[in-house]
Amino acid sequence: MTATVSPMPLAEEVAELAGLIAGAADVGAVVALAPDVGKLAVALIEADAGAGLVTQVQSALNERLTTRILSLVKPRHRLPAAAWCWLSMGSEGRGEQTLATDQDNGLVFSAADHAEARALRPFFLAMAREVNAALDACGFPLCKGGIMASNADWCLSEENWRERFTQWLSQPTPEALLRANIFFDFRPLAGDSALTDRLSEWLLARTQDNKLFLRLMVANALQTEPPLGLIRAFAVDDGGPHAGTLDLKVRGTRIFVDAARVFALAGGIAETGTAERLRIAGEKLRVERRHVDATVEAFHYLQVLRLRSQRRDEQPSTPNRIDPYALNEIDQRMLKEALRQGRKLQQRLKETFAMSL
After folding, report:
1. CA distance 149 to 331
2. Cα-based distances in Å from 301 to 51, 140, 232, 347
3. Cα angle 233, 236, 239; round to 5
4. How far is residue 295 from each of residues 90, 120, 225, 275, 292, measured CA to CA in Å?
5. What gap in Å lies between CA 305 and CA 320, rounded to an integer?
6. Range of the domain at 308
7. CA-CA distance, 222 to 214, in Å (whole number)?
8. Got the DSSP string for 2-62?
9. Residue 122: partners with Cβ closer than 8 Å, 6 or more residues away
10. Dihedral sign (CA 168, 277, 57, 52)
11. Cβ contacts of residue 13 below 8 Å, gap of 6+?
12. Average pLDDT by consecutive 10-residue portion of the chain (357 residues)?
């Protein structure tokens, strides 16, 4: 199918593509359909669909690709009778994938003890290697940091995952905080979701009152300042290969994602999506709805700019960079206000945790 040139309404194209993926006869057929997901996302961007809708559709269809691959690959492996669940993490776990994304996934399985876990792991790793390779063929590059289910470090039993999380919570080194930023946005994608639900419940029960961990997570979330200039409107890179530009992910959406994660871990919020985390946290903290709405809209606007940039970018190594002064006057004003909302969110984070920590 061609997602960009069709008289069919986009909603129907999404449904049709989802059906084609679900009915793909083999992994090769899934790989052949993968480019159409990006084409549909671009069509939605060009139709001025909101960032929330675009990333939701993109993430949902990417999930369909993964689950279909898993269903096709699984029968080729002699898996043990143990329950297992494929985990999505990072932007995929938050349901916020854009056009430029790599793989962040893991696997949890049940085991009676460490000895059984060691015996079972090779069976799941073999399946995971084939799935990760197929996803790479679909256009999701292998994670450079190795955060994939085919890595023995992230193919673990429930007990192993709890031990790993406990280590990060009790010894929150910079590396542990970095891991938390990725892994603590996990959610189930395929398999027995009860495993993931238990792990999420266990984790949230241990983050809410962990003052040291939360204090360091707050400090980590405040490290990135919105790129607002004192003299000019925006603080862009002064030199180097990216002079005159700013990174909308590192210095934009990350501000909202990191703050929302802290609020979720501190408030026992199981939701992984940034917008929903902010809304639920706003209710818990009794923040006026109009302020919460402004924060969410600012996050979505930055996502829109990222998607537009990725649609046009001819250099895949810089998919999130823009020259803010190349934007039209309206977009410049909106970008400036979105970044101001990010600054306000960070201030709310400071005030909230200065009182509780």
Report:
1. 40
2. 7, 24, 21, 20
3. 145
4. 21, 45, 16, 9, 5
5. 8
6. 212-356
7. 12
8. -SSS-SS-HHHHHHHHHHHHHT-SSHHHHHHHHHHHHHHHHHHHHTT--HHHHHHHHHHHH
9. none
10. negative
11. 1, 3, 6, 40, 43
12. 48 91 97 93 85 85 95 95 96 88 93 97 98 95 93 97 97 94 95 97 96 95 92 88 93 97 97 97 96 97 90 71 94 96 97 80
Indicate the residue type of 332.
Q
Question: In the structure encoding, which two tokens stand for residue 277, read together?
Answer: 């985390």
Give, in degrees to the nearest 5, the angle at Cα 114 between 108 and 118: 70
How many structural domains are present in the chain?
2
Using a 10 angstrom Cβ sphere, with 0-12 exposed, 13-18 middle and 19 or more buried, the burial of residue 356 is exposed
| Amino acid identity for residue 153 in this structure | D
How far, in Å, CA of 209 to CA of 225, rounded?
Answer: 27
Tell me if 5 is assigned to some domain.
no
The pLDDT of residue 5: 40
Tokens for 32?
A: 């052949």
- Residue 35 is encoded by which pair of tokens? 């480019």
Q: Is the whole-model pTM more than 0.90? A: yes
Instruction: Locate 59 and state its tokens.
Output: 């993430």
Query: For residues 103 and 136, is the Cβ–Cβ distance under 8 A?
Result: yes
Residue where a domain terminates, one of 169, 192, 207: 207
Give the side-chain half-sphere CA count within 13 A for 92: 25
CA neighbor of 60 nearest in space, from 7, 21, 4: 21
Instruction: Kindly report the number of other CB atoms within 10 A of residue 292's CB atom.
Output: 19
Residues in the chain, total: 357
Are both 133 and 41 inside the same structural domain?
Answer: yes
Identify the pLDDT of residue 2.
38
319's tokens? 């998919």
115 and 249 in a common domain: no
